[in-house]
Amino acid sequence: MFWKFDLNNTSHIDQLLDREGVTLRELMEEEDVLQECKAQNRKLLLFLSKDHCMQELVTLITEEPPADLEEKTRFKFPNIACELLTSDVALINDKLGGDESLLEKLYHFLEQEPPLNPLLASFFSKTIGNLIARKTDQVISFLRKKHNFISLVLNHIDASAMMDLLLRLISCVEPAPLRMEVLNWLNEERLIQRLTELMHTGRDEERQSNASQTLCDIIRLSRDQANQLSEVTEPDPLLAVLESQENVAELLKNMFEGERTEASVVNGTQVLLTLLESRRSGHACPLEGLMDLYSQGCERSYTVNSSILCAIEPHLKDFQQLLLNPPTRSAILTTVGVLEQPLGSARLHVARLVASLLQTCDLSICQEICRLNTMDLLLDLFFKYSWNNFLHLQVELCVASILNHSAHADLQNPGLQNHEERPLFQHCRLVQRILDAWEENDKNQAEGGRRRGNMGHLTRIANTVVQNLEKGLAHSQINDLIKGLLKDCRGRWESFVGETLRETNRRNTVDLVSTHNLHSSSEDDDMESPFPNDLSIQQAFSDYQIQQMTANFVDQFGFNDEEFSEHDENINAAFDRIAEINFNIDADDHSANAAAFEACCKERIQQFDDCEEEEDIWDEKEINYATQIKSRSRYSTWMICLRKYNLLWTASFGDTEVSSSSSWGGPPQEGGEGPQDTSWSSFTEFQPFSG
């Protein structure tokens, strides 16, 4: 009975607090101190909010613990102190936010020389961040009086916790008028310009990386908050500076001034990519998702602040030069061998930038990309680095972007304008490259080599060309260019499209069609075009995978949804079917396998008895799992044998009637009458296994 037990579990903390002279350290040694604090234990909160306790808690999170302590326990108390200070309890928040001496002690942490202890920096940032959200007026007022606050934070930007602190200032201040005051204050402190300065090639990589990430997060936060506001009273000053031509130009200058390092290129390009992010209904739309829309013939141009593009255009030649002469990297060992000159993050980010710029449909930008012959360089890299799928995706996006742009009043398709602009099909020789690469891959495979890693993306590029040739927005221009190919090349292309590519698409989708019948009514459509919708294929493949997993799961474990019902009659459902099995063993009775199978089947499977006498469940007794484990083992062994010999079996859930072949040693018994062969388990009496 429950009243046999003493369930009135009084916290040991209450007992400690009743003792005279208890210390904060003694309380922090208790495992449930955080739980009691968050549970609003009044006695504990009154103790913690005492001046000397608050001073000690702040000291713990801002001063290095003694170096002679064991490493695994050295930061135990600072961690607990931080959790107590940020437990979101009103009494502690009021005390910490309302006591300027405590705030001064916290602020003193920033006045140390870099580098900060990263763990203590995270404790400090979390504590200040909590106060910004809960005691906004007091903390913002305190920080604004500190004229060197932003300078100190940026001085320690190599610690990621300082980046988090800046983002809390931007995102956690409410209400909206106060938030705008904070944004204006940060703008007056030239926060964006100072972060941009940290992107200079001469800065250390950690500062560059954190400054870049901070700028990217500010862009996204500012745009998201602007979209969430029903009425925009005034523009976000930080976002306005970030999108200004002057600031973008300064960022690019810092990237390319002096020695061009991979870190400065990558970090700076990440900021540019964030500025160029496409947005739909207030949400960022990653470029990787564009292919699904392109495959349906959808146009996906979007508006980007023209000042950003104006600042980028003069530096396109610098990015072009990075494709030709990237920062030096040492050889690396890959799963396909040694790569003497890796592609590198710098060139990959340039490819991402070009894909984003082409998506803007800006006439001047697209013309400059064509003039510089950037697409030709990217296609060279596509075929040279045949195992870098990150690059392959970006090149595929570039090709799709060129092919899918419609002809606006002020812009013809950037890659198809005229011969002087070095269009995609003429100067870049896209069709010839596809055919040559495909033939080389087939030859390589015929000689026993492996399939090249870019063939999947090459298939998608070829499909994109054919789709646009048939019914794309620029199909007439593409058709004219195909007709303008040399006769031999045009013949190879027509043969490739009609045979090789069609067969590749059929082979890639055969399992999906047979499983889901998604294309059962599309035979006529296939006669017109062999290229199924990419989005449908991806969705079908996803469904196919799920179906296969589900089928295997049910087959292996034998459970259906209704068998998890709470009704008593369904408890035995998973094992009742065993009583209905019809066995048909296709094996030679005289073979060694048959003998082994027979011996295994003859091993008795012990049954469970439901008629045991009722026991007192509260009696202490030793639990023995031996019998149960043995039964499970026998059952598992027997089922493995059934699977191994591919038994054909069926089960129904009506009245039990077992039929068996002669291999079971005799005719079946009907109605449960007649003598039972004691060498066999009785399936009709099976009960579910427990545990």
Automatic annotation (TrEMBL):
Signal peptide: none
Bias (Polar residues) ranges: 677-691
Domain of life: Eukaryota
Region of interest (Disordered), residue spans: 659-691
An annotated Gene Ontology molecular function: protein phosphatase binding
Entry-linked InterPro entries: ARM-type_fold, SAPS
Cellular component, GO annotation: cytosol; nucleus
Annotated Pfam families: SAPS
Family: Belongs to the SAPS family.
Protein name: Protein phosphatase 6, regulatory subunit 2a
